[in-house]
Amino acid sequence: MVDLEVKIGGITLKNPVTTASGCFGYGLEYTDFLDISRLGAIFTKATTGEPREGNPSPRMAETPMGMINSVGLQNKGVDHFIEHIYPHLSAYDTHFIVNVSGSTVEEYVEVASKIDVLEKIPGIELNISCPNVKEGGMVFGTDPVSARKVIRAVREAYHKTLIVKLSPNVTSIKDFALIAQEEGADSVSLINTLLAMAIDAERRKPLIARITGGLSGPAVKPIALRMVWEVAQAVEIPVIGLGGISSATDVIEFMLAGATAVQVGTANFIDPAISLKILEGIIDYMERHGFSSVKELTGALEI
Amino acid sequence: MNQIIGKKRIEDLEVTGNKWLNEDYFVLTLRSEEILPDIRAGQFTQVKVEGSPETFLRRPISFYDVHPSSREIRLLIRKAGAGTKRLSALNKGEKVNMIYPLGRPFSLLEGNRFLLVGGGVGLAPLYLLGKELHRAGKEIVFLFGFRSAGQLFDLSQFKDLGELYLTTEDGSKGEKGLVTGHPVMEQGWDAIYTCGPEPMMKVIAAVAAEKGVPCEASLETLMGCGFGACLCCAVETVHGMQRACVEGPVFNTKELLW
Ligand SMILES: Cc1cc2nc3c(=O)[nH]c(=O)nc-3n(C[C@H](O)[C@H](O)[C@H](O)COP(=O)(O)OP(=O)(O)OC[C@H]3O[C@@H](n4cnc5c(N)ncnc54)[C@H](O)[C@@H]3O)c2cc1C
Ligand SMILES: Cc1cc2nc3c(=O)[nH]c(=O)nc-3n(C[C@H](O)[C@H](O)[C@H](O)COP(=O)(O)O)c2cc1C
Ligand code: FES
Question: What is the DSSP string of A76-134?
């Protein structure tokens, strides 16, 4: 038996395979396809202070080995989450980490404080990197001063494990990782989607109503891998790697580059049971290469 | 490997037939190794397209026909782009991975006389619906619109279920013009069901609203996942943004803000 446990802040994950925000609903959408309790953790869809309708349609376009989405932060708000979704989560033996979003520092703090008291939620992922909203979101994640301000305010209000999700739409992502670490974040996750665009040449129109959106899927993996590598070199706190992961080999690569855990995003849409297949593949890799603990993989790149 | 847990399945089905009906449309027949789940008209499947590098996401396709006894389903597909082109080239014996059944089906609306209006490949779910309504002892009439006679195929199986009227835009078969201008639209119907191009469905919904006739439409919205997780398929409704893949693809047209 190989040891698959990893630690992110105060959370012990039974294995490093988790699912990415916005790609796995609240986990409940997937229970027909797999035993979600076998996952290391589930990152929920973004949760904001007030309900949000999200962006107009079309909200997506398929691109080579990936997709662009502009869902926006459609969700029913934190109070709805607490009343109607949270009660269902205790049936599952995995960690639910709430992706927290907002337009203002106050909104982030409000959502974080409300989640803080929920016993079954051991951590939050601060989403300062959503490219699909006019206010807040990526604005916080691409300006060092705003990033510091929101992370500091949330850190004061939130007492459990705080993960900051970084935007790749910056020149130097490690600067933002360092800010998160300095402000007391327990971990950083990266990457969120890359700002992107798709055009229908025949109609001479944008394919997405909001014109631009966020690119995800295998197309972004090499960029995500490089960023995880850069960030892991710079910070002490654990790094959660994501971006285009679709196989166990992808996960191994992210871990070698320095990730402690990973998130599977867009790949779930194509194969809703892929996360557990990936987990099996990791075990197989460890056995083949003689690793007894998955922790040994983190940063084990030979240069 | 097949995983059959709960109501939605991910399953490899075997191609038992693949036949062109005309230049653009083909019928793909697939067989399950398992007993088929309950599949209702208006529901769809998310088909994984192997061997087409351009096709990254699954492709949503409605159920055209279901045969529980032989465990077969049929899909009526229009060759639109690379994904559907690849599906048209599938051979007997090949496996196709599908997630199904998905989405909210057509509902059995009150009354006895129903009009089923289809445009192009929008005919697909209306055949299964016709079978369901016919079995329930309802009187049904089909009204189908095509661009031209070249798009037509043998519609005799529809005729076994009810009367059928045709229009073509160029007048090469049936009435010339659009379905929306056909006199049968003006008869008194207890409900109208429609699937086809959105502009067509909008006009039909408007006619139905004017006459106070309930109307259900099946939308063809772009989909990311098809099972409720990505929120890419949002449709504006009187209840706010709803997912075409879960709360739809069939909507009562008076709920749609389109
Ligand atoms: C619920 C639902 C049920 C459907 N049922 C059927 C069916 O029974 N038979 C059938 O032939 N088609 C059906 N469609 C449409 C079908 O999914 C698309 O035609 C298909 O995804 C196109 O894939 P492609 O790779 O061949 O073409 P692409 O290269 O992806 O696209 C070619 C063209 O088709 C258009 N297109 C792409 N996706 C869609 C879509 N989802 N809806 C409408 N147009 C699209 C594109 O804008 C483009 O102009 C359904 C769609 C939905 C959402
Ligand atoms: C449809 C969709 C919705 C998303 N919604 C969110 C979200 O609400 N919050 C968030 O932090 N990231 C969101 N993301 C970004 C993913 O969590 C992830 O960072 C990104 O997709 C890259 O990983 P992937 O290539 O594995 O999908 C979303 C991505 C997609 C495709
Ligand atoms: S297609 Fe993903 S939620 Fe509908």
Answer: --HHHIIIIIHHHHTTSSSEEEEEE--SSHHHHHHHHHHHHT-TT--EEEEE---TT-S
Query: Which CATH number goes with the domain that contains A180?
Result: 3.20.20.70
| Residue B214 and residue B252 in contact, taking contact as beta carbons nearer than 8 Å | yes
CB of A93 within 8 Å of a chain B CB? The answer is: no
Partners of residue B6 in chain A, C-beta under 8 Å: 31-33
Question: What is the enclosing helix (H) or strand (E) of A221?
Answer: helix A221-234
Q: Is A200 a member of any domain?
A: no
Query: Which of A26, A30, A33 would you mutate first to test chain B, the one with the most B CBs within 10 A?
Result: A33
- Shortest Cα distance from A37 to chain B (angstroms)? 15
What pLDDT does A136 receive? 64
3-state secondary structure of B131: helix
Tens of pLDDT, residues B94-121: 999 999 999 999 999 999 999 999 999 9
All residues of chain A having their beta carbon less than 8 Å from the beta carbon of residue B7 are: 32
In a domain, A206, yes or no: no
CB neighbourhood size of A56 (10 A): 14
User: What long-range pairs does B167-176 form, CB within 8 A, spacing at least 24?
Assistant: B167/B143, B169/B145, B172/B148, B173/B146, B173/B148, B173/B149
Interchain contact, A272 vs B99, CB within 8 Å: yes
Peptide bond into B183 cis (omega under 30): no
Note whether residue A156 is domain-resident.
yes
Number of domains observed in the structure of chain A? 1
| Contact indicator for B230, B254 with CB cutoff of 8 Å | no
pLDDT the model gives residue B186: 86
Question: pTM to 2 decimals?
Answer: 0.95
Chain A residues within an 8 Å CB radius of B226: 269
Range of the domain at A182: 6-54+72-195+215-297
Cα angle A92, A74, A44; round to 5: 25
Assigned domain for A209 exists: no
DSSP conformation class of A45: P
Q: ipTM value, please give it.
A: 0.94
For chain A of 303 residues, list the mean pLDDT of each consecutive stretch of 10: 96 98 95 97 96 94 97 94 95 97 94 96 93 71 93 97 97 97 98 97 96 97 98 98 98 98 98 98 97 97 94
For the Cβ of B126 lying below 6 angstroms from any atom of ligand 1, the answer is no
